[in-house]
Design goal:
single chain; 183 residues; alpha/beta; three-stranded parallel sheet; two-stranded antiparallel ribbon
Length: 183
């Protein structure tokens, strides 16, 4: 993300999405529990904020964003999006007790073809409940740096599970749409 950010702003959009999530849930810690986890060519699970430990201050939120940027500067290229989604599903069920809903919102630059990931593969991971009793509602936001590829993913997954954000301004609407639609 760091390498191509100057061309299409994909890292900036990811940071804005993370900031939006943190700001939106600030003050609602008793109602919502969340974590922020990254994925890169290094790992499917790079923790930035853990369940039960949301950032409390603006400084805490800014430090999370700084960690995200630092990671993108030094990580290897590659894509662990699918493994990251699968791990997030396991983590949300394993770390959040007695929840009304289990939700995973994954954000990707939708650069799947480069790594041999097909729309069918994305659909399988998004749809698979991995043998868990709990239903984990999984949504994927494609930052659409490669718009055609993101549309192909959306067509293959279907069912309102994939969203395309061509512009950063669309992220608040998409995240709101996801969260309102889950209830």
């Amino acid at each position: 993300m760091y390498r191509f950010n100057g061309q299409d702003g994909r890292l900036d959009r990811s940071l804005e999405a993370a900031a939006l999530v943190m700001e939106s849930f600030h003050g609602y810690e008793g109602q919502f529990d969340y974590s922020i986890v990254g994925h890169s060519g290094d790992s499917p699970c790079i923790p930035f904020s853990d369940f039960g430990s949301p950032p409390k201050t603006e400084r805490d939120r800014m430090n999370i964003l700084k960690k995200m940027v630092a990671h993108t500067q030094f990580c290897r290229s590659g894509d662990y999006t699918l493994e990251g989604i699968a791990k997030a599903k396991q983590d949300v069920v394993g770390n959040v007790e007695d929840a009304d809903e289990y939700v995973v919102i994954a954000i990707s630059d939708a650069n799947f073809r480069r790594y041999g990931i097909s729309g069918k593969m994305v659909g399988q991971v998004v749809d698979d409940n991995m043998g868990m009793e709990q239903d984990v509602k999984t949504k994927l936001i494609c930052l659409a740096s490669l718009g055609e590829e993101a549309r192909e993913i959306k067509e293959n997954v279907g069912g309102g599970k994939v969203f395309i954000a061509q512009e950063t301004a669309a992220l608040p609407r998409i995240i709101r749409e996801i969260l309102v639609g889950i209830q």
